[in-house]
Amino acid sequence: MFVCSHPFAVFDYFRVPYEVLRAVGPSRSPLDQCATLAPRSAPARSIRWPVFGTGASLPRLAHPARRFRLGSVMLHGRLLPDDRIGEWLLSAGAGWRPGEPVTDGGEQLASVWRNDSGDIFLPFDPDEVVLNFWSEGYRVKPDGTATSPLRSMAVSGYYLVRPLIPRPVQISARRLYSKVQVRTPFPRWPVETSLHDFYDLVLGWAAELAGEDVPYLAPWPAGRSWAFVLTHDVETDEGLRRLPVLRDIEVAAGFRSSWNLVPGRYDVPDDVVAALKADGFEVGLHGLYHDGRDLADGVFAQRLPEMRRWAQRWQACGFRSPATHRAWDTMASLPFEYDSSYPDTDPYEPQPGGCCSWLPYFNKRLVELPITLPQDHTVFVILRCADAGLWIEKSERIRAAGGMALLITHPDYLDRAPIARAYEELLARFAGDDSAWRALPVEVARWWRRRAESRLQRAGDGWQVVGPARDAAQVRVVSPPHRQSRSPRRAVQG
């Protein structure tokens, strides 16, 4: 349906049909170093944007990567200034003018440019923007400068001395600090919509350019409109002993979940793992010792063989980092099918931030399953909520958006808060929801891989799925603005 001069990760993510047709010949101008996306039906119309990873001049001409706003959407990346873009575009043809302003919340930094023919020029690279969400590359100061290393040093120091701090003192300190953490302007908590708003912008621009519906592959299989995924982190031997409490609640409600265990911290009998798996549950690895050092420089390589041994012993496909510590490049080499350590947004964790996604995505070959519901310890111990209201409210938001509601609960904390009662309330709320895909994490990861290996192709007046997801996938479309009396995104076939 489209042709593009460069691979386009946003289209790859949504499986929008396009073909890469690279320009032939040397680059004669900076515009030649920009990506060009055009519909096959109207190749004279296009969207262009800078590709900063190629060519020597574009990175030097751009503002350093920084946080910026496009309307109400908060983004992060490098920007080409208006004077530079205007110089190029006005020399290439008439009719170009600055359109939507790109600001820092006050001062204008750049613009989305348009011309009378309907062409669009973006001052940023959409793929870089998306990667900065997924990898938390935005975690710098708003002006683009790096944050101080003092915080990470303080977190590392805290984990070293934490065993010496009385538990009531730890909790009191966390509660006091939570009043500061919740004021974090980005990503907002408990819901940050900027990444998904940006997806809508990009797909909307493509539909506007094409003047017709743009097809893409729906996130979930078999006609399900959202996913509901349950996981548990078992941090201590006491948590392992209390495992049956949450397990039995799930069994009674017709759910199954994943249990992430810590083999170097407490004894995990093989028969416990075997019983869980025999009953349809999943077992994953929650680090080796739960000391916050698994991903540290020099430590990761030492621990990797032992983590791999335990994964093979348990046939574990998933990993979650203790305290949800994250290191994008390091985690890409984890020997698992998926990781689930990135929250969508969480200011309360030792490493605050989040990927802002309530859909899975890839870190190289690794599928990342974001944690999209607030953690039980935060909700019930730190914020002292009394029921499942916060969980249910966020789940409803995710259901309406067609995302994945993925929850962590800890059997370790059952004696400190009304977690079991709230968990029953949450599961009861969605037990009868046939629109939800109630899946194990490994099932979601394998589906996401099948989906990524599938594509859409023309079939008469419609589209068909080709590839390993063809039997379960659903095609949806984004409509151009003049057709949006209906929902911009809608299903067109199973």
Automatic annotation (TrEMBL):
Top-rank taxon, per record: Bacteria
Region annotated Disordered, chain positions: 475-494
Ranges of compositional bias, category Basic residues: 483-494
Protein name: NodB homology domain-containing protein
Gene source species: Planosporangium thailandense
